[in-house]
Amino acid sequence: MQKKDAILSAEVHPAPNELFVHIAQTLKQAGGWLPFDRFMSLALYTPGLGYYANGLLKFGSMPDSGSDFVTAPELSPWFGRTLGRQVVQALRATGTDQVWEFGAGSGALAEQVLTEVLASGIPLKQYTIVDVSGQLRQRQEQRLQPFAPLVQWLDTWPSRLQGVIIGNEVLDAMPVQLIYRRQDVWWERGVALDASVDPPVFCWSDRPTPHRPPVDVPGDHDYLTEIHPQAEAFIRTLADRWERGAAFFIDYGFPEAEYYHPQRHMGTLMCHRLHRSDPDPLTDVGLKDITAHVNFTGVALAAQEAGLQVMGYTSQGRFLINAGLFEGMEQAPLTERAACSRLINEHEMGELFKVLALAPVASAEGWLPLGFSQGDRTHTL
Question: Cβ–Cβ contacts within 10 Å for residue 107, how many?
Answer without folding.
Answer: 26
